[in-house]
Amino acid sequence: MITGTERIFDSLDAEWALVCAEPEHTAWVCEWLFAAGALQAGQVPASLDEVLELMRRQTRAQGKQFSDRWLMALLRVAAGQGAQAQLAARVVVQSMLPMAVVMTRRLLRSGRDFDEVGQTVVACLYQVVRTYPASRVRKVAANVQMETLHLASRELEAEAEPDGLGLPEVVSTSTSASPSASMSAGPEESVWPRLLAAKAAECRLVDVAAEDLEGARGELVELLLQGLATGAVTEDRARAIAQDIRQGGREESQQAGVSAMAWRQRRSRAVRELRAVASDWAVAA
User: What are phi and psi of 52, to 5 degrees?
Assistant: First the structure.
């Protein structure tokens, strides 16, 4: 049985509001980003939330090279000491909280408490951010994600070991492996598909068994749930997308009198919306 709530992430969001309330914090972060070329003349975000939103938009427009640039600008500061280093680390962590939530859910196992797993993931994320090597300037977000995953996995497995010794250190440094594949490893049965099915049913997206939410179908449902959580899509629109893209959706639409051209237009719109959600998620990941 899974226990616990999402209090850890609610607390981080409340703490973030206090961080944003200090005007000098925004000024510091903007200064670092200007120096790195991630902010241009005329771009003057009024708050840290606006800073992160601007970074997301420009990452979508310019790609991963821009993501590497602005993240490294903050990570170099985060590696230092004092209030500015702590602020830089906190901004990076906040930008990656959606990834941390997903990672927490995927690391859940029967008997684990969500908040306890979340605390472990966030603590590991902080550690990775504060110690990120300045030489690793490419695929920065992916590197941070994978290092956090490896560290959190080791911490959680160590807690589960009766002798407290845990698993051997992961030595792979590849950033191309999928997080889902890494997170599904381990002797305990993953509960993520069951959570996904329950959440999808709660939101009335699809009504399927957990064992059917594997591969591309599970990823689609997870993406729609992410879009709902961030407000990128409405509940009605998410249900419509799930209806259009699911297996058999085209045939049912044609039976209902929808032309092939109209169905393709609807599907293209759904794909564009899902790409936007995936792009936002990738920035956090």
Answer: -65, -40
More confident residue, 58 or 158: 58
Q: Which of these, 91, 100, 148, 97, lies nearest to 124 by C-alpha position?
A: 148
Provide the CA 118 distance to its chain's centre, in angstroms. 13
Integer CA distances (angstroms), 100 to 42, 122, 145, 201, 204, in order: 33, 7, 8, 23, 25
- Which of 75, 37, 89, 35 minimizes the C-alpha distance to 58? 37
Phi, psi dihedrals of residue 172, rounded to the nearest 5° = -70, 140
For residue 50, with 0-12 CB atoms within 10 Å meaning exposed, 13-18 middle and 19 or more buried, which class applies? middle
Structure tokens at 241: 């997308």
What's the token pair of residue 44? 């003057």
Cα–Cα distance measured from residue 72 to residue 254, given in angstroms and rounded to the nearest whole number:
50
Q: What is the pLDDT of residues 167-196, one digit of tens each?
A: 233 222 233 333 443 444 343 334 566 666
Is-above-0.90 flag for pTM?
A: no
